[in-house]
Design a protein that fits this description.
alpha/beta
């Protein structure tokens, strides 16, 4: 009887790239193999398959992810009706959200915050605050500090992030947001998007330093990235961002090499059919998780009639619950490691984005 500790892969003979190619040509029955190549843009042509031989010259780590786990996020709009926002927030938490993302659209005082967070136990969640341009960041921080003090809590007791304010020193919540949503242009411009994203990250670090230690600033940075419908390119984009930020951290002589990445769906993610949109939401969620998202916001597709928005929110939460609790995506250690296609695509994105970054940022020395 074979021991369970034996390497089962030794029982199979390997196949060369040429053998794979000949098998594909045979199965195509006269159709040229070149017809299977995928041009992502004018310069990037992805072949229909890759093997270990194509990994020999790769200059990036082949295992950029340590684990797959992520926070289940949901957008909560905070307008003047704070009781409704509180209800939406509580509904989300009861429904399994552990990282609510509150879009705050006007100034809030201590009393307003009391209404918004009524019956919300912030010790048990990851809280993410997105301040709009209508919000005075300094006033908000002051009001929130007073709200916490009244409840015998401090900023250090909260985990999560704040988008829309300056670097908050001594605060556990991440406050340097690299918002790359405006750089998203689909798969054709992924390298440029990545280049601009890490460039913005470097600019924010330099602007926030002001004599401070870079370590604290690196620990406070997080990325907010959009993904679209193209499954493999979106996976490779997120993996490439991690590798690129490793290079940036090395340039600053920092040990922090695993950036926190928040993933949001692109505006063109959905069409008119809500059922088709659910399928899209599932595949995009999979690409976000496999790419290494730390936090995922699944946009709720619109459902008309009696089902309404509440049903839409619940069903999109369940997509993430299915990935965690039934498909066990969070239990597997980097399942795409060894996928030569994804790793090759990641390599292409990394090298093109890095070259573009160095060209754009000649003032920095990396």
């Amino acid at each position: 009887m074979m021991s369970i500790h034996n390497d089962l892969l030794t029982e199979f003979e390997g196949s060369s790239s040429e053998e794979w190619k000949q098998k594909i040509i045979k199965d195509l029955k006269g159709k040229p193999i070149e017809s299977l190549s995928w041009p992502l843009d004018e310069e990037i042509l992805m072949e229909p398959f890759y093997t270990l031989e194509d990994r020999k010259e790769v200059s990036i780590p082949s295992r950029p992810l340590e684990r797959l786990d992520w926070e289940i996020a949901e957008d909560i709009i905070v307008n003047r009706d704070l009781k409704k926002a509180n209800k939406d927030l509580l509904d989300g938490l009861v429904g399994g959200v552990n990282a609510p993302r509150l879009h705050i659209n006007h100034d809030l005082d201590e009393n307003d915050l009391g209404v918004l967070f009524k019956e919300v136990e912030t010790d048990f969640i990851s809280l993410h605050l997105v301040l709009s341009e209508q919000v005075n960041p300094s006033m908000f921080i002051e009001s929130f500090s007073a709200y916490l003090k009244e409840r015998k809590k401090e900023w250090k007791d909260l985990r999560g992030s704040i988008m829309g304010c300056e670097f908050q020193e001594g605060v556990r919540m991440k406050s340097i947001a690299v918002d790359s949503h405006g750089f998203y242009r689909g798969i054709e411009q992924i390298p440029e998007e990545l280049s601009k994203t890490i460039g913005l990250g470097v600019d924010l670090i330099m602007a926030s330093a002001d004599g401070r230690q870079a370590t604290g600033i690196f620990e406070s940075i997080f990325f907010s990235v959009r993904i679209g419908k193209s499954y493999f390119p979106m996976i490779a984009k997120l993996r490439a961002l991690r590798v690129l930020w490793q290079r940036i951290a090395k340039g600053f002589e920092e040990e922090t090499t695993t950036p926190e990445i928040e993933v949001v769906f692109s505006d063109d993610a959905y069409g008119e059919n809500p059922n088709t949109n659910l399928i899209r939401a599932t595949t995009m969620s999979m690409s976000a998780v496999l790419g290494g998202a730390d936090r995922l916001v699944v946009t709720a597709p619109d459902f008309e009639g009696k089902q309404g928005y509440g049903f839409s929110r619940r069903i999109t939460r369940n997509i993430q619950h299915l990935l965690k609790m039934e498909s066990f995506f969070d239990k597997v250690h980097d399942p795409l490691a060894g996928s030569y296609y994804v790793e090759k695509l990641t390599e292409v994105f990394v090298e093109k984005a890095w070259a573009d970054f160095l060209k754009r940022e000649e003032k920095y020395h990396f």
